[in-house]
Design brief:
elongated; 5% helix; 6-stranded mixed sheet; mainly beta
Length: 273
């Protein structure tokens, strides 16, 4: 920019977050910006999350601190239309419920008497919800998590504003007082020679270093035969190699896990005869 005094960036109308596909506008607040209209700020075609102040000009040379604050507040309070969850304070919640969870995102105009937070389609108690506006133009919703009742431990979390629902985020119910459970097993039959990959998925935190084990026909799978341990949203998958069938032993056997001193439910695995 021309001029003998370097331009100074005073601020931005938003620092994000932005949509992944791009295409949004942002504005830069400048001082000492000879060559720009009014030697100050230009806001042009502002889109989500700020829809106002489009094509307006502000003369920062004559703007005092109070005007600065008011203009910034206008930008922050500008309306937007999309409903989107950007972050959740925790993706694992206790099965007993009663804890507080916070969601940050674009929930402009959220009214708990009209709008809702849904957990797998079930409405959260409106009286437990509080909403607050953040400096970046997003909204934070805080609510009390209801207790787990039935079905999958993994639940869809959505926010609905003016009948527009956000894309679902996944949260999972977990609780130390609940017995760990195996939810699924990838294979139920295999060769008697063993060496086949089987994955157990459950609502537990599998840690071999504390003595957690997979029991296969009453015998523990060795650490060297465990191929991988992955955890996503409070659900863990342990992949291991099956042992060979012992001569004279039944062809059908049970598979279970020992987690932090507690035993899970069992699944059945059979060797080909």
């Amino acid at each position: 920019i021309g001029g003998t005094v370097p331009p100074l960036v005073l601020g931005l109308n938003t620092s994000g977050p932005f949509l992944r596909e791009g295409g949004e506008y942002m504005s830069v607040f400048l001082a000492n910006a000879a060559g720009f209209e009014n030697a100050g700020l230009r806001v042009t075609n502002v889109s989500t999350p700020f829809l106002t102040l489009a094509n307006s000009f502000v003369n920062w040379g004559s703007m005092g601190s109070e005007e600065w604050r008011n203009t910034m507040q206008q930008l922050r309070n500008a309306p937007q239309s999309e409903v989107e969850i950007l972050s959740v304070s925790s993706q694992s919640v206790p099965a007993a419920g009663g804890t507080t969870l916070s969601i940050r995102g674009y929930f402009e105009g959220f009214d708990k008497t009209r709008d809702s937070i849904l957990i797998s389609g079930v409405r959260v108690n409106p009286s437990s919800i509080s909403a607050s506006r953040n400096l970046d133009g997003t909204t934070s919703l805080t609510f009390t998590v209801p207790k787990y009742t039935s079905g999958s431990f993994a639940k869809d979390l959505q926010v609905v504003v003016n009948n527009i629902a956000s894309v679902a985020w996944t949260i999972s119910y977990v609780e130390a007082t609940l017995s760990p459970q195996i939810l699924s097993m990838s294979e139920s039959v295999g060769l008697p020679s063993g060496g086949e990959l089987v994955s157990l998925t459950g609502n537990f935190d599998f840690k071999p270093e504390r003595g957690d084990r997979i029991s296969f026909g009453g015998k523990a799978i060795s650490d060297s035969d465990i191929e991988s341990i992955t955890t996503l949203a409070g659900v863990t998958t342990v992949t291991f190699l099956t042992p060979p069938h012992s001569p004279g032993a039944p062809f059908a056997t049970s598979v279970e896990a020992r987690i932090n001193g507690r035993t899970t439910n069992s699944f059945s695995y059979s060797y080909y005869a």
